[in-house]
Design a protein that fits this description.
The structure holds two protein chains of two kinds. By secondary structure, chain A is α/β, with parallel strands linked by helices. Chain A has two domains: 2-119, 3-Layer(aba) Sandwich (Rossmann fold), CATH 3.40.50; 135-285, 3-Layer(aba) Sandwich (Rossmann fold). Helices cover 44% and strands 10% of the residues of chain A. In chain A, the strands form two sheets. Chain A has a four-stranded parallel sheet, sandwiched between helices. In chain A, strands 6-5-7-8 form a four-stranded parallel sheet, with helices on both faces. Chain B has helices at 8-12, 14-23, 35-39, 50-58, 62-67, 70-73, 79-83, 90-105, 116-121, 124-134. In chain B, helix 2 (14-23) packs across helix 8. The radius of gyration of chain B is 16 Å and the shape is globular. The chains are: A alpha/beta, B mainly alpha. Chain A binds chain B through residues 8-10, 13-15, 41, 43-51, 55, 77, 79, 150, 153-156, 164-165, 188-190, 192-200, 202, 205-206, 209, 227-228, 231, 235, and chain B through 21-24, 41-42, 44-45, 72-73, 75-79, 81-82, 89, 91-92, 95-96, 99, 108-109, 113-114, 118, 121-134.
């Protein structure tokens, strides 16, 4: 199966470990992601003012490119998913803004593309049973906190493909890989998002609450689907160890890194060395990574 | 038992009207259940709780809201909107307030404000979204 793919700005740069693990894991499962030619940034945030049509032009242009290539567009970055999905919805439902956007970007697009998140593709197009059948290295004994963040859940009516208050798709995927998802309360909390640009200390506090909650629930690793959540949750932990008594660090991985490892792909390809909290000792202890890997 | 509030100042305040226009939200729809404040992940850092922001707007006290730090700490995670029994999208109201505050007092994020080491490590999307939300 071929699906058009929009990597977005972060997966093309800082999030290469995510991008590569997404492409290679899906390829191993029979899904070929075909990168859109000539794509642009989605804007990294959905414009919320009623009269802000201009900021929809970027994501609309991406959707137009996708419509020339197929009827589905896959995203791995959940911010891109959120922005593209909501822009597409505006184009579908709001005639006035649709016409203005089409005039502005010189297109005739009606919103026919279906924007899908990679996790949604794994659940609905591949199927977790099929994933389970292809596991070569079980993650058994690994306690995982599955973190969903905001972007695939809210606003529920516009973007959610899972229960917005108690999502479980990622937990089911991890269970199909043999891992043990923990029950915890931080699944849908916000990591602080772009607040990091003006108030990093607030993003740090928000991440502290999420990581501590996962740790208390018995998790050994937290998995995420968003490159900015990954950064926020990972980046401040070395500061938190110093600042907050009792804080214990937890590696933060992309869920596709674990998926790729479980499918028997080479873990050294997914930039594990770039994470702030080193996940390698844990992966080695669980027999998921060769002892020789530096 | 109920609280009677005078809407006179709300109806006569052109800024309150602009907040409604920009956000597309009905400020009077809120009946102060407090669900937004209870679930807001940034509430611990706010000087006004999200529910207080909307109450002050209902009372026409827009100036007070524009002075508060709260409007800069909302990153539109939309936990409030997802749970609001009246369907009020508070994140759109916050965006409208940021817009009005920046029209008046200038942009919040300056191009040279983010330290170089952070520019090198921050994911692109944090920088792009930051400039989208904290500049005009």
């Amino acid at each position: 199966m071929k699906v058009s793919y929009f990597p977005g700005c972060t997966l093309n740069t800082k999030g290469k470990g995510f991008d590569r693990s997404v492409r290679e894991a899906l390829a191993a499962l029979g899904v070929e992601l075909e990168e859109l030619p000539d794509w642009n940034c989605c804007g990294a945030s959905f414009p919320l003012l009623v009269d802000n049509v201009l900021d929809l032009a970027g994501p609309a242009r991406v959707l137009v490119a996708a419509s020339a290539q197929g009827d589905k567009l896959a995203t791995a970055c959940t911010t891109c998913y959120n922005v593209l999905k909501r822009t597409n919805r505006v184009i579908r439902l709001d005639r006035d803004r649709r016409e203005r956007l089409n005039y502005f970007i010189e297109a005739d697009y009606q919103g026919q593309v279906e924007v899908m998140d990679v996790l949604q593709i794994l659940r609905d197009e591949v199927g977790f049973e099929e994933v389970k059948a292809k596991v070569q290295k079980s993650l058994s004994g690994l306690k995982v906190a599955c973190y969903y963040g905001c972007m695939v859940l809210r606003p529920p009516a516009e973007v959610a493909y899972d229960d917005p208050e108690n999502p479980h798709a990622l937990d089911e995927l991890m269970a199909s890989l043999g891992a043990e998802p923990v029950l915890w309360g931080g699944k849908v909390e916000c990591c602080g998002n772009y607040l990091v640009a003006i108030k990093p200390e607030l993003a740090m506090e928000m991440s502290y609450r999420i990581i501590s909650s996962a740790y208390r629930a018995g998790a050994e690793v937290l998995v995420t689907n968003c490159p900015l959540c990954q950064f926020n949750l990972d980046r401040w932990q070395r500061d938190l160890v110093v600042k907050k008594g009792g804080f214990r660090p937890l590696p933060v991985l992309y869920f596709t890194q674990l998926l790729a490892i479980a499918l028997g792909l080479d873990p050294t390809r997914y930039e594990l060395e770039k994470h702030y909290v080193d996940p390698k000792p844990l992966l080695k202890a669980k027999g998921l990574l060769d002892q020789e890997v530096g | 038992m109920g609280t009677v509030i005078s809407l006179e100042k709300f109806f006569l305040n052109p800024l309150a009207r602009r907040v409604e226009e920009l956000s597309g939200q009905d400020l009077l729809a809120c009946y102060q259940c407090g669900e937004c404040s209870a679930g807001c992940p940034a509430a611990f850092a706010m000087d006004l709780l999200p529910s207080q922001v909307i109450r002050l707007l209902q009372l026409g006290q827009v100036e007070e809201v524009l002075q508060s730090a709260t409007i800069w700490f909302c990153v539109a995670c939309q936990a409030c909107y997802a749970r609001c029994p009246k369907g009020v999208d508070l994140s759109r109201i916050m965006e409208a307030l940021r817009e009005l505050a920046m029209e008046r007092s200038g942009e919040v994020l300056k191009h040279n404000q983010i330290p170089e080491k952070d520019l090198e490590s921050f994911p692109q999307q944090a920088i792009i979204a930051g400039f989208r939300k904290y500049t005009l």
